[in-house]
Structure formats: structure tokens, C-alpha cells
Amino acid sequence: MNYSAEAKKQICESAADKNDISLLSAVVHTCAVVRKFSGGFELRLTSNNEFLAPLVRRIVDESAPGCFMENDGKEMIIGGETMALMNMLGIVNISVGGEISFVRGIKPALVKSDAGKKAYLKGAFLGAGSFTASSWHLEIGVASEELAADLAELIKKFGLTPHCFKRKDKHIVYLKRADDVIDFFGVVGASKVMLELAGKLAVDQTRRDSARITNLELSNMDRTINVAVAQVEAIRLIESKVGLHSLNDKLYEVAKLRLSEDTLSYEDIAERLSISKGSVKYRLRKIEEEARRLRLADGGKDENK
User: Fold this and answer.
1) What 3-state class would DSSP assign to 295?
2) Fewer CB within 10 Å: C terminus or N terminus of the chain?
């Protein structure tokens, strides 16, 4: 599944009318270019999301009667009384004296309510968001550092942990924890994607746990085999030097069983001899100590030192 495309489709389908201005402000702020010409200004928005153009057209028609939108392939062009629209969206400020300045952050009035905050994040993801499922990396790339900082603060309001960095001429706000990514899609209304990713995370975690358990079991098996091999070598040394009958009866019966079946676990030996696992470990340790004593008596080296 293309999670980004599906999320944007769901966001466009679930956009709430009363927060349209916050959403459109974010879309324009993140993916629009303002072009000046002799008749005034126009906004050019570029997007691969086929569901965005109808949403933007509806908002423009309902909220800015003096403006119009034309769709030229992947580019949406908003013309008409665009200065008034940009002022309403918090893209520009118009002073009392008529001076115009561009706003580099988020207009506070648009994100006062939780609904306004969610709508702005919806627009930001629609305009400049992407998600890579393989690395659980969700990002929104914007042109100004101020807008990136404001977006990060907005995301924090929902208990998420965003990070920021600069990539060439873009300022990137991103989430890197799987839980944060899932919650973000819930915040912006992409509930189907949120549920799909929650399921994917559960499956991934199960696979990781299974692999970890398998690796642990193999590691324990290797360790058990190595210990058994060392014990068999110790028993054979005793047998060759002084004979197994030199051992007391309790050590002798463990030595014979280990020598005859070197793959038996401590539990298996304990069951065969009707003794505890601790007694098995104690007796085998005593056998290894006797083998070390014989090596040292012959002028050999104690391998445990």
C-alpha cells in the first residue's frame, strides 16, 4: 500500500468545512508559489494528489468569492482577488498604510482550537508531507525555518515528538518513532492508514521477538554443546590417567552417563539418575576439577586460568 497517497485521499475526504481556512492556509504555505504580474498576484500550487484539487476548489469557491481556481494538470492556479485571500490565510500581512509583508510562520488565529490545529496539520501533510513505511519516517518539508518551528510546536500539542533539520533549501519536520507516526495519522483523520500501520507494527514486533528468541535459543544451544564437549574431554582424561573407577560412586555414574550420551542436558541427566539438576551440575564440576588436578600434576596448563 502507498500509505502517503491513501492518507492524503482520506484527509481530503474527511476535511471539515468549518476549519477549511486553516487547512487551505497550510496547503498554500507549504506548496504554493506566489507569482506577480501586471494584473496582480496569482497562487500556483503543485501536487501529485488527485484529490487535492477538488478540495481546494471547493474551499476557494466557498470562502473567497472574489477568487477562482483553474486546474492545469498537476498545477492548481488561484487567481482573482488573491491578496485578500492571502491576507485571510495568514500568508501576507497588510498594514494600515497598505504595506504588504509575507508571513513566514503560522497565523496564531488559525490554530487556536484543537480542530484548527488538526486542520492545519492536515493541510501541511497534503501540501508537503510524505511517509516511508520501511523506515517509519514521516516528514513535512517547508521553505522557512519559522514555519518548520511552528509546525513542530503544533505537532507537540498532540503529545508527539517531532524533530527538525535542514536539507538543501528545505526545512524538514519529521517523526521517527512508529508510535508517533501512527498517532499523527490519527490526528489528521487518516484512520484507515492509522489502523493499517498499527497492524503492521504489531506484525513487525512479533517477527522481531521471534527472531530474538530463536537467536537466544541457538546461542544457548551452542553454549550447552561447548560445555558438554569440555566435560567429555575431562572425563576421558581421567579415564586415560587413573580410570573412572578412581571416582566415587556418585561422580562415576554421572561420568559414565555423560560419556555415553554427550548430548544430554542437565535436566535429562537428572531425570535418568533421579537426582536434582543442581546435583548434576555439582558432580560434573567436581569431575572437571579432578581433570584440572591431573593436568597440573603432569605439568600441564590449567585452561581455566
Assistant:
1) helix
2) C
pLDDT in tens, 177-195: 999 999 999 999 999 999 9
Residue pair 147/53 in contact by the 8 Å Cβ criterion: no
Residue 169 and residue 146 in contact, taking contact as beta carbons nearer than 8 Å: no
Nearest CA to 182 out of 199, 167, 207 is that of 199
Dig out the grid coordinates for 258 from the structure: 555423560
Stated as kind and residue range, the H or E segment containing 129 is strand 129-132
Determine if residue 189 is left, alpha or beta; phi over 0 gives left, psi from -120 to 50 gives alpha, anything else beta.
left
Q: Which of 184, 36, 75, 192 is nearest to 124 (CA)?
A: 184
Q: How far apart are CA 150 and CA 258, in angstroms?
A: 70
Per-residue pLDDT of 55-73, as tens digits, reads 999 999 998 889 999 987 7
- Which parts of the chain register pLDDT below 70? 16-18, 96, 209, 211, 213-225, 300-305
With CA atoms as reference, report the closest residue to 121 among 44, 32, 11.
11
Amino acid occupying residue 169? D
How far is residue 151 CA from its own chain's centroid? 20
What residues pair up with 69 in beta bridges, in sequence order?
A: 78
